Amino acid sequence: MRFMMIVKATTDSEAGVLPSQELIDAMQKYNEELVKAGVLLAADGLMSSASGIRISYPEPGGKPKVVDGPFTEAKEMIAGYTLIEVKSREEAIEWALRMPDPHGYGQGEIELRQVFEFEELMEDPASRAKEEALRKQVDELKKA
Question: Are strands 110-114 and 2-8 parallel, antiparallel or unpaired?
Fold first, then answer.
């Protein structure tokens, strides 16, 4: 089971305020624990929405709309993520609870969401086979 820990943005992260060295050290220690446990798949911080681009589809079948950041409502945005693979929902919650306050100062908020496996999304055997082939191709490209 894969889960994404979504670190919500704050006014500081949207203002481009970088984390303190103390917080960086705590996050590195946490990530080391995830690596040692063999559950870490990816972890990254995101730049503020000032450098972001939002693409929306306001009309069914219509052209997409492209809007440059910054965007409002920091609490609705993402400042970073950690992707883990664990055996259960409970294990994912345990790991999320161990994450240091991602922004410090008591402003941190983490949203934990399970990732769909492609088999769960696709009933059609042909679609599943095509997706599996694409994923194998990606894996081979990573090894090259």
Answer: antiparallel
